[in-house]
Specification:
Layout: H1 2-23, H2 35-51, H3 57-69, H4 78-87, H5 94-121
Length: 123
């Protein structure tokens, strides 16, 4: 039982991390110190997509699920298993992973450009 709860907690943390990678730059408008956490997270998120690696949280969740109920986890990555079936009906391809990595970079480039303009406008 506790393993299943921990696996679910990992899923929640994983999802929140993805949201932070995508939208965490917005927090910098309130306090620029968020950039110290967000920029490495965004680089990690984009890097995972560009490289085709699986996030380390995925095997951890799978092990917890197997320990808790004896059922297997899933062999694909978190995004492919939870998010892509909703957004894209087909399996995750390298092209989609590269697109997702570019999407992360472009979104964050936009946010940090706006922050840069805002900062230098106020000087």
């Amino acid at each position: 039982m506790i393993h299943s709860i921990l696996a679910d907690l990992i899923v929640i943390i994983h999802f929140l991390f993805i949201l932070f990678v995508l939208f965490g730059g917005i927090l910098c408008f309130f306090n620029i110190k968020w950039a110290w956490m967000h920029i490495p997270a965004a680089i990690w998120g984009a890097g995972i997509e560009f490289s085709g690696w699986i996030c380390p949280l995925t095997p951890l969740e799978n092990r917890l699920r197997m320990s808790g109920s004896g059922t297997g986890g899933y062999s694909s990555g978190f995004i492919e298993h939870y998010l892509l079936p909703i957004i894209y009906p087909e399996e995750l391809t390298r092209n989609i992973q590269i697109f997702l990595g570019l999407f992360v970079l472009i979104c964050n480039l936009f946010v940090y450009s706006a922050l840069f303009i805002k900062h230098y406008k106020n000087i």
